[in-house]
Write a structure and sequence with these properties.
Length: 260
Amino acid sequence: MTDTTAPEASPIPQIARITMSDLREVLVLGWHDFRRAPTFGLIFSAVYVLGGLFLAFVSSGFVWSTVILALGFPILAPFVAVGLYEVSWRLEDNRPMDPNQIFGAVWREKDRQIPWAGAIIVVYFLFYTFLAHMIFALFMGLSVMTNISSSYEAFFTTNGLTMIAVELVLGGILAFILFGLTAFSLPLLLEKEIDFMTAMLLSFKAVQQNIPVSIAWAAIIAGLVLLAMIPAFLGLFVALPVLGHATWHLYRRVLVHPGD
């Protein structure tokens, strides 16, 4: 008979304080992890690079839509992030870098809590997309005769500039909320037996209690990803693995598990 007993729930970790120096240190550790296991970093980041190139192809050269879609694409692939966390976890414990075990660990996450967290992320992203279209219609609805894909004059009108400002403010707020919910919940769900709602709320609370450092970390992620996208998304082959490994090490410093 198959043992269908549910695994015992893990204790809730405690939230620790982190500093700006921690960000520098985890970035160095992330770079070291990437150098120790570059193949896995390149494989997992290829998902984003190929996805970005595909979006660039289907958008027919409409640069702004490509950038918007490509920035949203990474949040739809939590399993890729989990793969990078798994590699860092194994390096931390001096476990073998066996491809079958690593990819198998990522595959097994489909039966745990990661898919539920991924579903929340997808719904959140779809809500943001809907809201962005609503804001566009609200401010630019009277400019329906303007081809905005070839003429940008409409964006420099009062309505256009106001729309851009509103999009940036609301988009930034929503992006930071999503960052708070996922910053530490995905590595927590990989390592421990905790339900996805508890993990996401705990992650958000950890970000709240370390708000200055969390804002700086979010800015570092956004800045590095944006810069890495400029040379045909190829910079993501390095930026994403380093950031993924660094996030694992930052998670280790923010959430302290009793008894570990």
